[in-house]
Fold this sequence. Notes:
Blueprint (H helix, E strand, L loop, with lengths): L1 E6 L6 H17 L3 E6 L3 E2 L2 H10 L19 H7 L1 H5 L2 E4 L10 H9 L8 H8 L1 H10 L7 E3 L4 H8 L3 E5 L9 E3 L2 H12 L5 E5 L4 E8 L2 E2 L3 E5 L6 H5 L4 E4 L6 H17 L5 E8 L5 E7 L9 H8 L4 H20 L7
Parallel strand pairs: 1-2, 1-4
Antiparallel strand pairs: 2-3, 5-8, 6-7, 6-8, 9-10, 9-11, 9-13, 11-12, 13-14
Helix pairs in contact: 1-2, 1-13, 3-5, 8-9
Amino acid sequence: xxxxxxxxxxxxxxxxxxxxxxxxxxxxxxxxxxxxxxxxxxxxxxxxxxxxxxxxxxxxxxxxxxxxxxxxxxxxxxxxxxxxxxxxxxxxxxxxxxxxxxxxxxxxxxxxxxxxxxxxxxxxxxxxxxxxxxxxxxxxxxxxxxxxxxxxxxxxxxxxxxxxxxxxxxxxxxxxxxxxxxxxxxxxxxxxxxxxxxxxxxxxxxxxxxxxxxxxxxxxxxxxxxxxxxxxxxxxxxxxxxxxxxxxxxxxxxxxxxxxxxxxxxxxxxxxxxxxxxxxxxxxxxxxxxxxxxxxxxxxxxxxxxxxxxxxxxxxxxxxxxxxxxxxxxxxxxxxxxxxxxxxx
Length: 345
């Protein structure tokens, strides 16, 4: 297939997206596909630039500006409309994370332009990105999720309702960017300022102490459960992307019944949020065995250290095959999306 991988962009998760996209591009080439990588904040990358990204590892990458080829950080809509490689591709593989790349904006632009792409559609992306909407839908569907408050509130009120410690984070976004575990009223207020720094509403969430698990969904099937044991108290940005900062066991060493329960819950979350092709759903399990859904990721990371590829490998699906399967699902969804018939049934 003739493929384009759309990566980078202008969100706070740009560095993760660059790494994901370059890994995906290399994997798809290894399967014999014709692939070009396109930075949504600047344009097409050379193979040498891709290698440089992979060699440099994951960081909080700056948006490219004032370079000979990129006079400014261009919005994602400009790139989608003007880079021929995207229009010429049979399928555009979306490896964007956060911001316009994951909240449904880019997906809408691609559909208007008649460009076939991978992953969830505009509605599913919007629902999964907005953590308040996600939690409301999960609660209505009977999927347990920790209690929460959305919108700035006095620290005393937050503690009175949710207790201590409490998770404070942006209501949108991912990769644990600007997430804090606050242990006092003062820390709650300071954490709220940090969470709002990117322009998102703040979300306060009851802290559930227990074991952390994640379940990937591929097509209509749940992948093996992965257990996450971070080196720190929270599975934060560094633990997610720095080698050796977390132990991830795939498949998790848990009873079959527990694994099936988590997989069933992940499939229900995937369905309720109208997600498509692939996703990853995160859970905490308390001491009593109760599972609490934290969030769903419409475009989970696909770096060498990411959880979805590890889950797929535990199911016997190596990374290049995983990427190819996702491309095939995107290609097959193309006629339905062009016809405007919405998400998968």
